[in-house]
Amino acid sequence: MFEVLFFALIVVAGTAGELCVSRAMKAIGEVHDFRPASLIKVLLRALRIKWMWIGVGLMTIGFFSLLAILSFDNVSFVVPVTALGYVAGALGGRFFLGEQVNWRRWAGILLVCAGVTLVVIGKG
Amino acid sequence: MIIAGPLGNLMLGKGMKSIGKITTKISSPGELVDVLARILSSGTIWLGIASLLTFFVAYMLVLSWADYSYVQPASAIAYGVVALLATLLLGEAVSPLRWAGIAVICVGVFVVGHTNPRTTENPRSCSKSSSLR
Is the whole-model pTM more than 0.95? Predict the structure, then answer.
């Protein structure tokens, strides 16, 4: 019961958080300069974007759910199952960020889902 | 990005296992604070967090130019690394079916990895810049 709840939080809050962070970083634009001083500037600009804060908040919820689950399930089980975020990620990328997801990417995402199913079946 | 992520998850797993199953431990707000304090005073967990932060910074830099629905699946090769390190370092038992599942996930990653990393930009300007190179 708790397992399902925590996995749902990891997948939904974690993925939604990453989408928000991606939206914020796209607003900043491509990072070309990797010197420490300019990276700090990028970071400070990122912190001024509302989506960055929403994203980090959601990812925090996802992170503590991950910690909770890791207290009673094995890493090699928990981490593959969190790959369920791929469906949410593709849907979110498509409808929230306006990215085009072609059939080939959908096929890859479906394979990832099939793999997760096998991991769950193989738990026993 | 591919090494730091799995290593971080592994250390979190190790740290949380030493704290014990939290759902049976927390039945009052006081106990929640107690467990949180123990999580935040664990060295293994902080090492894991540091490792995941390294991963997160690399991830954000990549997200500034590539599509999210491309980056997320492409980073999934880490799932194979996690299982491998979990058996080697934490001694976790991974059943053949679980290995098969992880292998299928990696095939999915391979398929996704062969798509264009950027779709929201004008395709004409993309081909122009690549011909300039």
Answer: no
